[in-house]
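Weekly modeling sync, notes
Attendees: S.R. (lead), two postdocs, one rotation student

Agenda item 3: backlog of single-chain predictions. S.R. asked that every request posted to the team notebook include the full sequence so nobody has to chase files. The rotation student volunteered to paste the first one in as an example of the format we agreed on. Action items at the bottom.

Example entry:
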Amino acid sequence: MFERYEVLQFWSSSDICPDQCGETFVAFASALAREGLDYQRLECGDQRRIGALLWTVLSPSEVRDTPASSNDNGNSLVLLLQYGSASFLFAGDLQSASEEEIWQIVLPRGPIAALLPHHAMDECVSERFLQWAHPELVVVSSDANDPDPGVISTLQEKSLRHFATFRDGTICIFTDGCTFSERTER
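Predicted structure, as returned to the notebook:
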């Protein structure tokens, strides 16, 4: 990642004991240290302005205590990026069990592009989540085995403009602050 992109900051939830199992986490932590980047622990409600962009942390409102060997997805950050009247919702690895805390949040008016939670797996994308986010455009980031066929069918039934990395390749979404346009590359 650091060879391909210029990483300026690393944000993490306030979970002080993230799932640190496995070689991937150890390699990632080592790469952060080599680059001189520290974790910036963010909490629900925190905001970061970068030029005309406003990032807001929507979840988690509190860190869920999970055994070190269990899945830590419920502590994943859910972020809203606003530019003009357009917003991007990054749902991270939000689980259905954790969704309830975000339903009370009123999203800004204007078009929303949403990256569905946890590779669009059924237990992570509820009907209520789609009603709450009311996205104009949806992205599924997964290989062909991950997204639940029922989730993809729901997107089609709702006539939601959607793209999936397993089908469409790289998905680039652009906004002028009012509308979205997209380009895909295989």
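Discussion: group reviewed the output briefly. DSSP finds five helices and eleven strands in the chain.
Action items: rotation student to repeat for the remaining queue; S.R. to check formatting next week.
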